[in-house]
Amino acid sequence: MTINQLEWQQLLPNTAACTGQFEREYRREPLNIAITQPRLQKSLHTFCHQHVTASPFMLIKAVDSRAYLSLIHDTVKNIQPVRSEVFGSRYEINNAVISRVDAQSKSDNFAATDDCLYEEWLETEQLFGCLRKHNDSYTLEPGLIHKANGGVLILSVRTLLTQPHLWFRLKQAVISKRFQWFSVDDSRPLPLSIPSMPLELKVILVGDRYGLGELQELEPELIEQVIYTEFETDLVVNQDEDIVTWCEYLNSVAFHYQLPSIDASAYPSLINIAVRKSGDQEKLPLCPQLLSHILSDATPFAMPAITAQSLEQAEQEKLWRESYLSEMVLDDIDLGQVRIETEGFVIGQINGLSVLEYPGHPRAMGEPSRISCVVHLGDGEITDVERKSELGGNLHAKGIMIMQAFIAAELASDQQFPFSGSIVFEQSYGEVDGDSASLAGLCALMSALSQQPINQQIAVTGSVDQFGNVQTIGGINEKIEGFFDVCNSRELTGSQGVILPLTNIRHLCLKNEVVEAVKAGRFHLWAIDHAQDALPLLTGLPYVDENKPSIIGSIQERITQVAGNDRNRLPWALRWLNWFNRG
Questions:
Q1: According to the model, what pLDDT value does residue 320 have?
Q2: Residue of 58, 277, 290, 414 with fewest CB within 10 Å of its CB?
Q3: Which positions are catalytic?
């Protein structure tokens, strides 16, 4: 049995031991991904220096935004081999006749102008160039592939997937090492014949997993041959030097985006904000867009450097701007429009925790939900009302079935289980999915079977397996804060709290109100690793005990009573058998 009542120090990342690292003088240097992305750095180096017979394509799993493309571009520029020859051509138009010769200097109209270029979104003419006619004269305009000829072109996978004709033409040109001119309008051929030109180009394609997956389905053989790597989203913190690395990277981001310097007092707050984003106390995010937004939000309050106070002001203002919807949700609970019990003991009812994500809203919100269970004599079937009404998703249904399997194993008997029941999320009017409420549902069902009431001052979150082990769930901070806000608006009693999975401790990074309440003993968090640890906290009875009342004992006693009553309900002609049973 493992029940850990958490101390307030466990609710935030431990930054006290890093004071020395925060006091260091960090130089404001250009952003260099090599310190945080060694795999990406090495892969780019290999790609830029590989033999000419290797695949001219490379895939990078990353956000295909300008910020990421720019970082990859800067890295490639630093590691590319120096070019001495001129790549490209010179086109001349005389009397509506176009001729081509190899470029002799960089001033030629179709000579490469750069050895590495990138673009987030482009159209056909931007990529491949075009032939334009004005009055009776013609001009040829180069595209990106001409300007980067002999070098590297960095493009978004999303751009090519939404415009498949771009991808097929680009692939053909890169693989054949020759660019064939074509008309942008398929219904109108080129008015002049344009000689093709040699092309020596490498292409880096950047996209998320879904985009790369679509490309893999489209080009399975091509993808097998390319170099693949990823922009790592987080820095794993295993030692003090990792904190130093992150602080250096953070200062480089500030320098890159021309943001104010960072004061030593700001680092603990920055780590707290970062952990909220990564969802793990041992991981710090590396997304340059995210970090620059955090710093830029605090810039108006920075005088002159970004401090802990300026970050706090920025976070409070941002929370205030975005809190209208969460305030309306809390008001509905306070007014009784959404029923949530936070006092007393009730059989078969429990406070589960969920995370709401509304379309278009930037912040996920935690909200308690009432889960209820009723049981009656039956054939052992547990009805999932959400599933029956087609409001429950597949993961939710899986969680309910796992919960039933655990109960069947715990109450193993040669006889058929004599009870049926139903479980429902009260006042849920949309689809319910995920298995993070399976522990709460299990506790409600055990309460209904044992007829032992549950303390309504405690909320529960966590998923369970068939053996009752409590497993990690997502959105733990939002869920705890959602229940805390409800309890706080009704006044904290000192007995309220949340039961959560033991494995979720490393994901905790709670707001100051919750931390202070736990510190003062007015709110509690209990971390458990098995379902049998939750029920004693909720009911005050041991899970199983041969010498005094317990949850399992109460259920077995009730089953025995039902079995005895069944014997008394024998048909009239066979009731004489009960006379022998009394003996």
A1: 93
A2: 414
A3: 436, 479
